Write a sequence for this structure.
């Protein structure tokens, strides 16, 4: 089977590609920048209509059985200091681009009894101080998937990670600490030092969960949280 993974140059996307490849699956990696796990002809913007047309042709020609959405951008910071253009960019990349990808792949996945996996975030389950716009984009994804789940034959999987050791999280934690007026070290200790797991998770742990989610035969929407107990859900 062949799977498409978006955001394949990032920490979580790359780990998902590696896990699926190790299990013997064919993997097509996409990202807006080139990377170790990104196919040379799949470097492009998921918000660009011309690239989406090209991606659609590739999905059909390779009979992709699962689409894994692993891309996204951070959105932490003091809400009053963030402009409308920043808000639009966060919502466009984290939410709208996923809908476009769904529209592109839905018919094929329905025909092949395929799976559509979205790596959302625990920020799509609970609000986080200093992270309002990011939460808004992830709550939108959670609500959208629950609505779509009631109308499609495609197996939907929503993965909600907590803190995962990636450059994206590092930047978000710095921005959230700044928004709260404390140091990065203080914020990390407050948030993760007292959580049940007592640590930040590794990208490979998300890769393992995604592989399990794809393998599940349950036809309905399945939602899973990997938060180290930080969010009890």
């Amino acid at each position: 089977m062949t799977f498409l993974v978006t955001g394949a140059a990032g920490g979580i996307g790359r780990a998902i590609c590696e896990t699926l490849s190790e299990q013997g699956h064919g993997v097509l990696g996409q990202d807006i920048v080139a990377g170790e796990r990104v196919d040379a002809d799949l470097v492009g913007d998921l918000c660009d209509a011309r690239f989406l047309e090209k991606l659609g042709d590739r999905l059909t020609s390779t009979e992709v059985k699962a689409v894994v959405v692993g891309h996204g951008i951070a959105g932490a910071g003091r809400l009053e200091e963030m402009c409308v253009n920043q808000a639009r960019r966060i919502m466009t990349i984290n939410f709208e681009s996923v809908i476009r990808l769904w529209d592109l792949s839905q018919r094929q996945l329905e025909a092949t009894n395929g799976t559509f996996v979205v790596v959302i975030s625990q920020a799509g389950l609970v609000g986080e101080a200093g992270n309002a716009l990011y939460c808004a984009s992830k709550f939108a994804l959670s609500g959208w998937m629950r609505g779509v789940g009631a109308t499609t034959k495609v197996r939907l999987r929503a993965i909600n990670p907590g803190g995962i050791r990636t450059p994206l999280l590092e930047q978000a934690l710095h921005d959230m600490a700044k928004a709260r007026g404390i140091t990065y070290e203080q914020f990390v200790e407050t948030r993760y030092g007292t959580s049940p797991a007592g640590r930040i998770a590794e990208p490979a742990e998300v890769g393992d969960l995604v592989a399990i989610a794809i393998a599940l035969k349950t036809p309905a929407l399945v939602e899973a949280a990997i938060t180290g107990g930080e969010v009890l859900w």
Remarks:
- The mean pLDDT is 93.
- The chain is about 45% helix and 15% strand.
- The CA atoms of residues 95 and 137 lie 6 Å apart.
